[in-house]
Design brief:
The structure holds two protein chains of two kinds.
Chain A lengths: L1 H12 L1 H5 L11 H12 L4 E8 L4 E6 L7 E7 L2 E2 L3 E2 L8 H7 L1 E2 L8 H12 L5 E10 L10 E9 L4 E6 L5 E6 L1
Antiparallel strand pairs in A: 1-2, 1-6, 1-7, 2-3, 3-4, 3-5, 7-8, 8-9, 9-10
Helix pairs in contact in A: 1-3
Chain B lengths: L1 H20 L15 H12 L3 E9 L2 E8 L6 E6 L9 E3 L11 E2 L5 H17 L9 E5 L6 E8 L5 E6 L6 E7 L2 E4 L2 H5 L15 E3 L13 H11 L5 E6 L4 E6 L6 E7 L5 E7 L19 H7 L11 E8 L9 E7 L4 E6 L5 E6 L1
Antiparallel strand pairs in B: 1-2, 1-5, 1-6, 2-3, 3-4, 6-7, 7-8, 8-9, 9-10, 11-15, 12-13, 12-16, 13-14, 14-15, 16-17, 17-18, 18-19
The chains are: A alpha+beta, B alpha+beta.
Chain lengths: ~180, ~375
Amino acid sequence: MRRWVCVLLLLLSSLASAAEPAAADYRWPNLTDFLSQLIHKLGPPVKVYKLKLDSSGGVDLWVQDQGRRDLIDSYEYEHGKISAPIPIKFDHYPTIETLDRHVIELTTIDFQRLPGMLASAREALNLPDARVSGIELQRGEPGGKPRYSNIPIWTFRMDSARHDGSVQFDLAGQVLHVDKD
Amino acid sequence: MSTKTDWLFAALLGWCGCACAAPDDAPIAPAQLLTDTAALKAAFATRIGRAVNVVEVQLNPYSATLVAQDARDRSTIDKYEALPGKPLAEGEPQKAGSLHCPKKSIALADLDFATGARLLTRAQELAKAIGSTDKPIAVSLDSDPFCESFGWHVYVKDRGDEPIELFASTDGKISKAQRLHGERWEKVDVDALLAGKAALVTAPPPPQAQTIAGDGRKHDYLRGVADELARLEAQAGGPLALQHIGIFEDSLHVDAYASKDRRRMRTYNFDAQGAIRSEEKETSDADCRKPFTTRDFVFDRLPEMIAGAPGLIPPLARGWVHSVHIQRGIVDCDAPYISIDVEDDRANGNVEYDARGKLRRAEVK
């Protein structure tokens, strides 16, 4: 487990420094601290159903319970503290197969790309002063159109005084879809 | 030394003269927004300083707000506010997607605020003529919910509290009025009403809700509702013509037909202390109007069915009952069935019995 944690921390370690240039624009949460706390708490593998970062840097991570794979718990992270698991209730109870298809292995997520994706999102929207209103990662269809790809998608929701917009990326940071009002 | 101080003071005065003069350049809104409409328009035009299309105006004696799109770039939208006798502040940027009907607008140069003010005066006269308790004080320029008629709108309430909408096109050439009477809009002849040549038929006031005090003890209706149903039947002098029974831990809702033709319903809402609030209303058009009684289903078995429901759904065995509903089938108006909603922290489920108490299903949703 120690090796696994080390690998993950290495992946995460440069996020804080990479985020520095944009720190004035968006207060990136300390994901390195959050995820290392979470891994120590749950043990590997961590399988992510959904990750949400809010406009003030709060984190909400939905994780599949590896002991009961039909269950999803939410862990919130704020001011350096991780919450107790919060049970997630779905409108329709999902099957284990559905959840297994939806989750994303934490080790496949390259968090170092986030600050670069934020810069790309501003560029794609042509809104250099846009603020982050939320960042989310989960599987879905780019642009909300059914293409049966069900790939992990980062969605950056941005807003400025005159416009709202969102940009979707794949895990490699490639722009998938741009939406601007 | 003194020469140097004087020079600095003079320089400071000169700088302040330039810097402090800027706010004085802001146009001043007229003191009477509804009567001095030409001055109001001029103040907006000066403040905006470029060609714009107006998409929305709210005008009343205390303020006038105007939402405008840049004539060259429709996505550049600003909101301006005029307060009586005050300088107009700069516009506040608005989101490009914030407009309900972005293509419905009029060039500010072509807009005549006096048309709106005249419509408001007409609405006030109409309110007086029909004995409305409501005095309209505001007029708006915007589109209807379907983005069809763009123009000035004022709303007046008739004596039955139903709204009358007065509309005038931006050029003032089209003027019309309609009233929401029951569920339909009908035309209103404002000239005839003002001349006293017509009268509005107003709907009777809605019946007042009745409240009967409870016994003060805390009820748990999921344990049984026999006493409450018996209380209502004693009050009605016989079996209730039931349409629906809704049972929650801390409330009970009984809907019964109140007229022979089933067009009227009476609802009885029990609170946690047993108090009943009852009111009459019209039956929905979609209702099949076929009542049932407590003898048409296994009423006596309800408490055991409710208590046993979570145990019938293994993943929710430690769950609890959220609510119970008894009614006829919505599609076929078939015999009444009993639907028990079960939940826990992670899932919802449903247990359903037919009128004879046969289990139809027990499943996680």
